[in-house]
Amino acid sequence: MADVDTYSSDVAFTPAVKTIQARKGSREAYANVEERGGWRTEIDENLAGFLAETNSFYLATASADGQPYIQHRGGPKGFIKILDKNTIAFADYSGNRQYITQGNLSENPRAHIFVMDYAHRRRVKIWGEARVVEDDPTLTKSLMPQGYKARPEQVILFRISAWDTNCPQHIPQKFDAADVAQALALRDARIAELEEELAALKGQPA
Fold it and tell me: Fewest CB atoms within 10 Å of the CB: 29, 34, 52, 160?
């Protein structure tokens, strides 16, 4: 059997994808990425910092027959925890009790995480495998953000196969309401300070 080179980006660049890349003229560029080692497979400082600031992401799974499903996951910044250089985890809160994600993972562990940072126009794509842990209260407690008003039902462990970033093209810039409120509060406090200084100056003799 002939040796076949495999790259981390093959998790997304299937033979069908590569065929289309070749037809549309982008295969050579991505082949160069493959020759340099492909996509990253371990959590580095950049990804760790990005995830530490994340309060929202989308988790994609699929059933055994390939029916896709995407579910939002959110929490306070830092709710995604890094367990080792290849594994992230988070407490899975009780919700609408449809359990589509858990059902999918029970028969197909392949999963994908898509994280969007609208404020800085950045996005990260993470491929891997996920599993649900229901019977580890110590782990669940350790992953639950302190003071967060939610009931943890279980834990999702996500082992990373590959991850990549996208360019900011076409990402609209949006800001979290809490960040906007904080910025406005700082502005209003500064305006009040300046108005007090102006009033004091006006009260002084010429």
Answer: 29
What pTM does this model have?
Answer: 0.85
Pair (51, 101) in one structural domain: yes
In whole angstroms, what is the distance from residue 62 CA to residue 67 CA? 5
Distance of CA 55 to the CA centre of its chain: 8
Phi-psi label, residue 84: left if phi above 0, alpha if psi -120 to 50, beta otherwise = beta
**Considering its fold, how many domains does the chain have in total?**
2
Residues 175 and 191 in one domain: yes
Q: How far apart are CA 142 and CA 178, in angstroms?
A: 26
For residues 64 and 15, give the distance between their C-alpha atoms in angstroms, rounded to a whole number: 21
pLDDT digits (tens, 9 = 90+) for 47-100: 999 999 999 999 999 999 999 999 999 999 999 999 999 999 999 999 888 999
- Per the structure, the complete domain to which residue 33 belongs is given by 7-38
Instruction: For CA atoms 138, 144, 146, 151, give the dihedral sign.
Output: negative
Same domain, 13 and 31: yes
